[in-house]
Write a structure and sequence with these properties.
The structure is a homotetramer. By secondary structure, chain A is of the alpha+beta class. In chain A, 22% of the residues lie in helices and 23% in strands. In chain A, the strands form six sheets. In chain A, strands 1-2-3-7-4 form a five-stranded antiparallel β-sheet, covered by helices on one side. In chain A, strands 9-8-10-16-11 form a five-stranded antiparallel β-sheet. The first copy, chain A, has a two-stranded antiparallel sheet with strand order 5-6. The first copy, chain A, starts with a strand and ends in a 6-residue tail after the last helix.
Chain lengths: 356, 356, 356, 356
Amino acid sequence: MSGSSIGQIFKVTTWGESHGEALGCIIEGVPSNISINENYIQTFLDRRKPGQSKFTTQRKEDDKVKILSGVFDGKTTGTPISLIIFNKDQKSKDYDEIKDKFRPGHADYTYQMKYGIRDYRGGGRASARETAMRVAAGAIATKILGEKIKIKGALIQLGKEKINECNWDWKEVNKNDFFCPDKTCVKVWEDYLLKIRKEGSSVGAIIQITASGVPVGLGEPVFSKIDALLAKGIMSIPAVKGVEIGNGFKSAELRGEENADEIRYKNKKLFFETNNAGGTLGGISSGQDIIVKFAVKPTSSILRERKTVNLKNQNTSIITKGRHDPCVGIRAVPVGEAMVAIILADLFLLNQNNKN
Amino acid sequence: MSGSSIGQIFKVTTWGESHGEALGCIIEGVPSNISINENYIQTFLDRRKPGQSKFTTQRKEDDKVKILSGVFDGKTTGTPISLIIFNKDQKSKDYDEIKDKFRPGHADYTYQMKYGIRDYRGGGRASARETAMRVAAGAIATKILGEKIKIKGALIQLGKEKINECNWDWKEVNKNDFFCPDKTCVKVWEDYLLKIRKEGSSVGAIIQITASGVPVGLGEPVFSKIDALLAKGIMSIPAVKGVEIGNGFKSAELRGEENADEIRYKNKKLFFETNNAGGTLGGISSGQDIIVKFAVKPTSSILRERKTVNLKNQNTSIITKGRHDPCVGIRAVPVGEAMVAIILADLFLLNQNNKN
Amino acid sequence: MSGSSIGQIFKVTTWGESHGEALGCIIEGVPSNISINENYIQTFLDRRKPGQSKFTTQRKEDDKVKILSGVFDGKTTGTPISLIIFNKDQKSKDYDEIKDKFRPGHADYTYQMKYGIRDYRGGGRASARETAMRVAAGAIATKILGEKIKIKGALIQLGKEKINECNWDWKEVNKNDFFCPDKTCVKVWEDYLLKIRKEGSSVGAIIQITASGVPVGLGEPVFSKIDALLAKGIMSIPAVKGVEIGNGFKSAELRGEENADEIRYKNKKLFFETNNAGGTLGGISSGQDIIVKFAVKPTSSILRERKTVNLKNQNTSIITKGRHDPCVGIRAVPVGEAMVAIILADLFLLNQNNKN
Amino acid sequence: MSGSSIGQIFKVTTWGESHGEALGCIIEGVPSNISINENYIQTFLDRRKPGQSKFTTQRKEDDKVKILSGVFDGKTTGTPISLIIFNKDQKSKDYDEIKDKFRPGHADYTYQMKYGIRDYRGGGRASARETAMRVAAGAIATKILGEKIKIKGALIQLGKEKINECNWDWKEVNKNDFFCPDKTCVKVWEDYLLKIRKEGSSVGAIIQITASGVPVGLGEPVFSKIDALLAKGIMSIPAVKGVEIGNGFKSAELRGEENADEIRYKNKKLFFETNNAGGTLGGISSGQDIIVKFAVKPTSSILRERKTVNLKNQNTSIITKGRHDPCVGIRAVPVGEAMVAIILADLFLLNQNNKN
């Protein structure tokens, strides 16, 4: 099945299990003569890498990426780019206990039922470790989009703690362990999350991704609207439970005259007076910022005892030891950026054909 | 581009403009020997049909569907099913005024920029009239899913007015003009929406779709998770701005032990004690009810004057006369049901191949 | 299943049965602002139309095509183009006898076994009547390719009678009933085929399609080589049993130095001294003429008694009355041209993305 | 672009350049719980491996395949299978001379024009070395097809030397260096090909692949006929210039009553009296042997001087030194088997959905 592929022209296919030998992806449809090297991709991967602060999993993976094909003398050749990351710090024995039990909130039960077999080590294919390859592919997508299109993500809610949008400062995002754009939240969030962690628990989060500089015209009518493809891409990230474009759910409460963005022309430029739409009209980018928000559920692997069932259909309970993120939403920020880049790059290339 | 197609095995491709001669679709991948006739499909279309109450557009379309291929002696033959609805009540002159102006909140500007040409009559391809064919395809999808899988939709919020979930009664849904499951809301909503309409305005809405009886195992890992495909399908409906699965955005605030559904075994059956996940784990259906919510923005075509720009880049204003829904979210209920049916039917057929 | 679709960007999906109400297709991916009307498409259809000479079936179909969507004010809008031809001269009763018998050489048995049901009237979906829509789609593909690319077909062998390649004159092709480029063959072929027909029999044929003016660079490496996609497109035409590119099977006998086309540069142009390759190197067009040949088997519907089996597994025999082509290869000429146009248009649009 | 992928359910995506670090592929859609290990795949690869006799290239590659994902405890898990072969004996300096020249009969010119860059080392992506991954994927396809379906290939013509079909003995095929089924040819072919090789030249070949035990019903109507997909798969093999199903080009000369296979019923079995069709009717397998023939052109890399042009558009000449097969058609036998297996496995899985 093509569950492991995304995109029509810019096509990413990932493979690999959390505790297998390696993870990788093939990226097809990259135009030729683009400069790409391993260091460039690595800077993207390093933002997502585990073990970087006390707020993420302590698994130590350097996530060193290697380019195996499609790049020659530092330039893309137009042929498929194969990327690989070898796994290093697999502690598979951590998972022996869960071999026969279904962890609540995890894919153990559904994989077992669908396939009749599962690689239980670290969640196998269902592990969030799979997202490393999304980030690597996102790095290449970013190159295709060029310098004018900027994709930036931020954590805007951690558990019950929300940022104050008035304090938003993109420059803060890379200065703290949360990708938080509101400086005033950082200390509060640190205390909050350490407490959650100490209690062996976890919380969810809300992330916003903003893509600016996107040209008018990306997205295809009806089923491949830019909104629809972004929703698919974002909702495919592990643990994501909701996606919004622009005003999102809030738009339900608004009236037509409050919501539809008025249009003006000034200084030889057409512009919109507001951006309630989040940068898309009729499924096609309008030239405004694309604004996507998404909700990540709390990590299901926690140190608290939970009721469950084993492979023999016996009632039992489980405490998931391993090494886990108290808020998997933090590392979802670079993953969300990557997914937006992947979707936009594909629509960008698809749109070449509308120019006749 | 394949923006007009959805699905991998059960594949729906729609065509047609709001004020063109006809609308239609081709449905590929329908197994043979399924009983289907025009009356059956018509019952689905009639739920979405315009002009049925004072709360929807007054355009009079009987939306009579015709089967042109793929069905022989009342049974599917396994070949593509072609469906058509001829348009009748096109008042294209209503649209003469908007020929040269971009309606705020509509696709006029983005289509014009993307294609350099647009069928401005009634929104052309971007019109919500396109959703008639989604409903027709959904009827066929429903047949494939069989009697055990039930897909039902309801309006749970109209503008600022929410239902009380405690009053939920599925039987009420078809007894009022709103697909509202809370009897106590109906009168309030009537008054509210008539007032909105009288003011020449509109409001948004929130819809919930529940699919029960879905077997464990639908959905493909990574990019074609059931959540991702539902999000794509739902977000592709015109005017939709947000999608949630299960707890959705609320899950951001929860802790791991509050959110992950515990598992038990009793009376020879495995079951979950709660359904925060909305029926999916790791992107694969768990056998619980699939619960999807989505937000519809307020209709952008309103009788209030709005600032905009014309094709000559002059500042101007517009009042969209035509015949419009004061809350397009109402008729989005059967459309949402149809999209869920279409996505599930495709995943259902795809899943046949995992059984070896 | 997507058996009824072809193409990745320029995507054609056909539907309809030989004796159903209508035949049609949806064409996606057509760039906007291309001038297209029904008369233009009709000129292509008229070349394939049945009942035009005593050498083709006597079924009378005017094959009038109607555009239902995607064209506005005579120009394409970038949205799906829906085409339809209503059937007129269906004599379904002709087929009553074959309802329960499998015609040798036809798809009756395989459809029955695959689907457990079949529309037996005129071969249903398996009828060569389906190719009308390929020709209509080919007309639109031709527009996309533009005036510089010319696609022309000719019948080069009728049964055992071959043309003399030295007499090849493209101007002759449209002056006889066979699309024959060798004037000296026409009378011979007439006598030959009338005799075959009088005997209630049929013969096969070989067709050559030449595409000139094709730019360098069409085709994608490995599995979507231009050769591979042409082979697929041509072999999908009913009754085709073989496809060759350039020297084809003859190349097996040659030595490397005889076969590989040498390259020269003169008058500011790179050129090849020969065209054994048929216009493709490594699966990518080289700028030379694309040369495709294909073999069509003799019509299986003949007036001679043939042994077969009925639905009750009884041995019996059959004479296929109906109205049939004594050489279905003749009308395969415009169908072959159409398929080459469809494949090239798709590769042409796909190739836009290699230009960065 | 998806040129590097083939298949709809059973989907193979290959990557890698001839002289890059490694070659690999991802195989999606493999049902779970199938036993697969590296040794099993290796037996297939070893049949294609270079350097095994004096009639193939002397490049020494052990082509050791490694499974990186999708297999757990010796069984497939339903997730993507990633295979890799590291290159060892790359003598890239052999190719320094051709860096700036276009080898006649090769893809050098077309890749350079399409992409503006090319990995010239050993033909890069266009090298026949790419077919190693087709063979590996074919091994897995063979597992899916099961023991009842047997796919066997043979070389039936080497240059001008044809086998005598009366001497056909499948057991001979693996006893000589040519996959030749006619024992009487072997000595003749050895002398013939050694002479060709000594002269620094090469010849083409014709290969037949037979698939027996294929169930009725594989193939999808219209564009995805089994014939069409086989033609695409086979024609995508480097150097292939022609494909035939059943009688192929010979069928052009036959009459309807000679060509259409008569049907009989005996001993509770329906059967055909002949197999002119090559196992397919209306694009759907009939249960008879599938018979595919294809022509391979002579290797273009020869030790004879050939006229060509360099990157500066200067007329020059070239002798391709490197290490080359005097008849690349020999190693095309296992590659042809693999492609037939890949196509059939995909159609086999697709056909699950027609069973309702």
